[in-house]
Queue: 2 jobs
Job 1
Amino acid sequence: MGIMDRITERFTSKGSTKQPVTLDETTVLNALRVVQDPDLHKDIVTLGFVRNVKISAATGGLEGQHEVSLEVNLTTPACPVKEQLKTQCEEALMALPGVSSTKVTMTASTRGALPLNTGSPVAASLGQVKNIIAVASGKGGVGKSTTAVNLAWSLAKSGSKVGLLDADIYGPSIPLMTRLNAGATASGTLVEPPQVDGVKIMSVGMFGQGGKATIMRGPMAAAVIKQFLSQVAWGELDYLVIDYPPGTGDIQLTISQTAPVTGAVIVTTPQEVALIDVRKAISMFETLKVPVLGVVETMSHFICDGCDKKHFIFREGGGARVASEHGVAFLGEIPMDQGLVQASDEGKPYVTSHQKSPVASAFASVAGAVASQVSILHAENKNVLQHFSLEWVH
């Protein structure tokens, strides 16, 4: 049943014309109950999205005609069905007798996990961060950092407040990919991260010595990560995206032990060689009690200049298959594009330098899917752990 059918059914009886109804806030809210959030599977009134309902006389002095204005406050600025919900609200309101015009304003208040305990070692740094998103793969070379950068920028373009932490201590690439030139500054007892296009960024690459290798043992790398999580003034953020290093070792464990990670985005290419390590990464997050938000498939296919045919260079469907195996969402496919490589090398996030391209649209779709999965987690009260401890059994 379509939305107009549901509206008609609510306000008419079988075999009769539309019955007169009193136009008040209760009537307006009842009309909007036909508008369902497709992710949370409840109507927007029950979810508490509808605010500031106002009914006023229509302009032009039309007797008995009114304008209805209201606000729909969503769970994230990156909601992928925002315009769809707005249109449905307008249709539902215009179906009411006596309504000649509507004004539906779409806003958002990003939902977050439970506040950190004031005694937490990361409370000063992460206390105002609503969601921490891990971007991981289990192996290198699958476009993980590229995905992390463009995910962060896509979320920021939607109106979200975003930070990006480069946790790849041995191979930091975020400074190059974002053209990060500014250094960190002191802010009391914390470090203030520099910003690029409004995105706050921290990376060990900011403190490196030219092209020299970062040489340190696991405990030293873990100590650096703890500093990034406890001594950086991240401030108020809707999303802190963390670019994980390849593998399932010390750094990954340290992040999960130190910070309340909301969920993980797993990045893979389609072929089985990549999926082997991806399955290990998913298993790691399951062990660490971190929800897996879903799987993103990069290098999904290539479309040559002379044809519209999709060429599956690295086989087909691996990302969707591994997502199905583990019962998690498939967040989307990112096609191969020469411009994506060039943009990364030049430090220009692709979603800003090629805004109208299919690849930029794909990243925007993935960002919307990630934001939706985070909202679903919070709606289902699957709040993240504030501390995790893993002990070896001898």
Job 2
Amino acid sequence: MHILALEPYYGGSHQTFIDQWIAHSHHQWTLLTLPAHHWKWRMRHAPITLAEQLNHPKYHSQEFDALFCSDMLSLSQFKGLAPANIRNLPAVLYFHENQLTYPDRFKGERDHHYGFDNYLSALAADQVWFNSNYHRQEFLTATRQLLKRMPDYQSLETVDQIEQKSLVAYPGVDQGETDAQSQPVEPSNQPLHILWAARWEHDKNPEDFFAALTLLKQQNIDFRLSVLGESFRDSPKVFAQAKREFADQIIHWGFLESREAYLNALQQADVVVSTALHEFFGIAVVEAIAAGCMPLLPNRLAYPELLEREQDSLAEFYFYDGSPRQLVDRLIEYHSLKNDAPKWESRLHLAQAKVARFQWKQQISQYDGLLDNLIDPKQSL
């Protein structure tokens, strides 16, 4: 099949996801993208810009079987502007995030027009895919709540329609040649190496992370620190403060352009910590676990789903209550456990087994198969 993929925000996890799927897929792909800047403007102009691009003569002779796009495209508007042979294609909308529940740094200033665009796009799609069940349920709940606030013609039944055509498709993770599970864990007297691997933004709650490290340092627990992830002009000031405070502990600091360098940095760390207040999936955490990091995660958001906490009581080990105080207590526990190689290895390999299902080599048959069945439902019989 020939798939037309549209990504108006081609950067970060959006870019990694679509590039890796195309690389593993048995389908033929044509990918149209726009730069990953000015997300609000991208959502506004992308339907016009991408429709104009597809009116170019080089696309007139191409035959596509399906359309795939991310939540950054207002699909309903695009269908109204696109050439007839494109607008009538069966369309899949993939939600990496949504603008109804994505955290707003400035409380009370949320522009619901973008969330409403997500809702209309979901209505216009033939299938709606979410990157976690947590995300799916949160979006459906928030959409119902938004419509109930409308003065009339609330059309709540349309949310049921979206629910019926929606499913969960976990994003694939590609670790390249990494096989951390094959590496035996040796006893070590080295300090615990703590990893932060997230965007330098307020929704990732860096204040709690560094507050916990301050408490850890005050208890004379020796540790090493790698703080990765992309920073921005308005990144929280706590990062500059932490760079000074933990200068003696820092191994890596800042964004690593090279994928190889990034994976190597993950492999050097012992534990990946999250303090996030928002996470629809958690690709960075999954990558870190696969690379050999023990997870220590707040018991919220999509994290319990990733490690199947509800299905396996042993997975409770990887979670804390979300407070800096308990995070410190658990880090001290990890610090002690690291010297017991067999126990550490057992715990680590259980976590790696939990996330092995997200590897692209496991996911690709599902992804390509979903597109096959969209075009020819008889294949699912």
